[in-house]
Amino acid sequence: MTKSIAVMLAAAAFAGAAHAQQWPTQPVKLMVNVAPGGVADRTARLLATRLQEALGQPMLVENRPGGDGYVGFQALAQLPADGYTLLFTPGSNVMIAPHVGKRPNLDPLKTLVPIAPAVTITMHLEVHPSVPAKSVAEFVSYTRANPGRVSYGTAGTGTALHIAAEVFKLETGADITHVPYKGAGPAIKDLLGGHVQAVFDPGIALEHVRAGRLRMLAVCAEQRRPDFPDVPTLAEAGVRGVDGGPYFGFYAPAGTPGEVVQRMNREVTQLLKDPALRKQLESTGLQIAAPMTPEAFAGYVRAESARYAKLLPQLGIRGE
What we know:
Layout: H1 2-22, E1 28-32, H2 39-55, E2 59-63, H3 70-77, E3 85-89, H4 91-95, H5 108-111, E4 112-121, E5 123-127, H6 136-145, E6 151-154, H7 160-172, E7 177-180, H8 184-192, E8 198-201, H9 206-210, E9 215-220, E10 248-253, H10 258-271, H11 275-282, E11 286-288, H12 294-314
Parallel strand pairs: 1-2, 1-3, 6-7, 6-8
Antiparallel strand pairs: 3-10, 4-10, 4-11, 5-8, 5-9
């Protein structure tokens, strides 16, 4: 009996090693659980193009927006955990949104395996040109003088954009109303159309700021942007505590072979060391994540989830 068990264990180990060597032998689908056009979508497509070169197989990006990320989570949970469908998602969908809209049968901390972090975002407070404010102080005064009339768009309830705006609201007393969308892209589109008056932009609307279609009032970072040297940081405007939220990252369905997770982690880590890619990502306002093993990333996810569970009630953002 002991000999039989040893043989079975050896066979299982051999099968796992063989899977690691063979994977991937077909295209890999990278699911993105937000709408096209936002930071997650653009970043996923850029990284997928480079990762498929390293993996030797096409990496096909598929958007599954809705439900603050849960439409994508649910779709992923119903697929085989064989390494051929992975997820790229904003950290807010994993570490923040679950505390806002609780779904006990679909907890991302249980249904997902963290693979590797990728980037975090720099927020930019931008307004529609119809808003007669040239500074943060003027914007806050304008919202107070027009109670209930100034709205801001986000990528959804509980997203980093939402948290940033609510922290700003708490710190300044601005009278702004939340309008959630299924991604940052749709929120920016409505900002351009004047349907909302402000957005904490994760960097996808900078071309519109340059073209004069939007006005940037502040950058949520430690330093000013070199390409917008006249735009102050929020700290310079006297507002602190607003940041880009937790890391965007790669995940796999629970049960995915560990060899696949480790391989993807190595490829992502190596890719994010590339100077040309780093420059491309940083030019859009993204900050590159520090390298983490899957185990370290999992610890980060748990810690950030616990932190936001305490922060959200302070902001008046409560679970259902």
